[in-house]
Design brief:
Two copies of one chain form a homodimer. Chain A has 13 helices and twelve strands. Chain A has 352 residues and is of the alpha+beta class. In chain A, the strands form three sheets. In chain A, strands 2-3-4-11-5-6-7 form a seven-stranded mixed β-sheet, sandwiched between helices. The two termini of chain A are 31 Å apart. The mean pLDDT of chain A is 96.
Chain lengths: 352, 352
């Protein structure tokens, strides 16, 4: 790797200011630029740097390539009282997903349950942001994304020797009381491609079970992935099965029909109003009691304590809001180069 | 282990006749006895012997202990156009689940989407039976079960050293065309307790990653599970997170309030009518094309081919309908003893 200089540390507000300015300079309306910037910086705060400002360069390249339309506004293509198909019209995925989650929320508030499909979407960021949007309103939220087409695929099916699926992630969010939102957000592969990329840059192996080479043999050499290998599904046939379901749900909502090139991705959002079954406060108290029991389990060797899903993210947020967000050298170079090209005074914006 | 004699081979019809007679003799009405027998024998046909006639003794013991009411009829406790809470009134779980799936089907046919919660349920058998019931009617079906309470728990949380969760399974079923129903049905633990039991009986170790001992250390000794150890979640924090969601969904539907002793289990059924989004035939054709691509991936070393979720079960069914179902000696002894105690001529019934 080239010498990228030192890593840098910024406050969330500084990164939001810079990132908002970049997206505006790239053609996004102010509110859109702010929304996407806030989404990315929140991912950094929560510890998910793979979904943070590292994405700015990629999104701007997509704008330049006209695959991302920075001022597109989502619309409802079809709907019933409990379902809707939302097109993002190839705008920022975050704009599409927020709009779709709000449609799901409104419908579920009326009808108790709603399913919304997103099509013509770009990268929607952390799925957990949209499931949590529903949970904060007192609903259970579920979000699934699938539908990448070759060559934009990364994962082998269980028992297979080549890529055909993607990381097809799942998220669930459930509001509780003292335990806040139980937040689940995972890829159906053992590891994200980003982690393989980091291992390759560092020249270190990946753990066993993450990869196969192009012959389908287990490998720990990150180069093997880039030479025709594939990511393996999490938990073997289980992660594979969830990944197939994610692809089929993207087809169900019509993402294949509305897709183009390798982006036939679609998202499936489910919203369920808890008080259709029992009062939210009563549910929250019962959920807290159960989570207390789980939390009280003594830690296994090598662990400090049992964490509830969502807890690692909340801890990261407290730390990073206090200490700032460390942006690795390569990420900072990409970010500042992107700003430079758009004629921005990057250092001034990042200092403001 | 004691000498249990030889294993036996029966046709599905023979096992259904015997099992139906046993449940009737134990107090189940004829239609109920047939339904539960058919459910168990179908699990055997599909290759899931852990959910097959091995359960007959356990169910009859539950009837004797009055925790299973063999003639109970499920009722709807509360409902809206899109949701319902169904009580099984402690009858056979299969009766509860079938009734609940039919309520979900009816509501989703009207409203496009429905969520049904099951409470006061006993073991509902294979979750895939109820998701597939929905898929056969042209809907997407999702079923999740959780809510076992100590001491009826088996699994450690991620990073924990003791049991607090159960195998909390998930099932998805999606109808396609040539590929039939894509059927997903898995425990959120690496392995079911039944497999540990089998390893212990054979005196062989379990694979690494399945178990921890009572200090929370990794173990391959099946005895360690029975001496205070625990099953590990599938894919670490991912399976753990799904397991927590399953428990919270059981609480959402009120299974804790309606539960008793350690059975606070509840099931969460989601039904979604595909043609709310696109015509079923069009979806099925698009799903087939995608599954063809997945199926066409060359096999990895050690595999003969890539299988679509649900395909292993359909193959087992063809084989076992042709060749019969092998009932291991211990299972046959338990089954025939159960029949004997109820005054049945087991050999005659199993030969009919």
């Amino acid at each position: 790797m080239a010498d990228d200089g030192p890593s840098r540390r910024f406050s969330a507000a500084q990164l939001r200011t810079l990132t908002t300015a970049i997206f505006q300079a790239a053609g996004a309306p102010p509110a859109t630029a702010e929304l996407v910037a806030s989404s990315l910086v929140t991912a950094n705060l929560l510890g998910h740097d793979s979904h943070g400002v590292i994405r700015v360069q990629e999104y701007c390249e997509e704008i330049a390539a006209k695959t991302l339309v920075p001022d597109a506004r989502p619309t409802v293509l079809a709907e019933t009282p409990t379902t809707a198909t939302v097109s993002g019209h190839w705008g920022f995925g975050q704009v599409t997903a927020r709009y779709g989650a709000e449609v799901a929320l409104r419908k579920a508030q009326e009808a108790n349950v709603a399913v919304v499909g997103l099509v013509q979407q770009n990268h929607i960021g952390r799925l957990g942001e949209w499931s949590a949007l529903l949970a904060r309103a007192g609903l259970v939220g579920m979000v699934v994304t699938g539908g990448w087409r070759p060559p934009a695929v990364s994962a082998a099916p269980f028992g297979g020797a080549a890529r055909i699926l993607s990381t097809n992630p799942y998220s669930f969010a459930i509001p509780t009381g003292r335990h806040d939102i139980v937040l689940v957000d995972f890829a159906t592969t053992v590891s994200a491609e980003g982690k393989v990329r980091v291992a390759r840059a560092k020249g270190v192996p990946v753990p066993p079970g993450v990869l196969i080479d192009k012959q389908g043999r287990p490998s720990t050499n990150p180069d093997d992935y880039y030479e025709g290998g594939a990511l393996l599904p999490a938990a073997g046939h289980k992660g594979y099965a969830l990944s197939v379901v994610a692809d089929l749900l993207s087809i169900l909502v019509g993402a294949d029909v509305h897709g183009r090139d390798w982006n036939c991705t679609g998202s499936f959002l489910l919203a369920l109003k808890i008080d259709a079954f029992r009062p939210l406060a009563e549910f929250a108290a019962a959920a807290d009691r159960r989570l207390d029991e789980v939390k009280a389990v003594p830690p296994a060797p090598g662990f400090a304590e049992v964490l509830i899903p969502g807890e690692p993210e909340r801890r990261s947020q407290v730390e990073r809001e206090r200490d700032g967000i460390v942006v690795p050298a390569a990420t900072w170079q990409a970010l500042s180069r992107t700003g430079d090209r758009l004629g921005l005074d990057v250092e001034r914006l990042a200092a403001s």
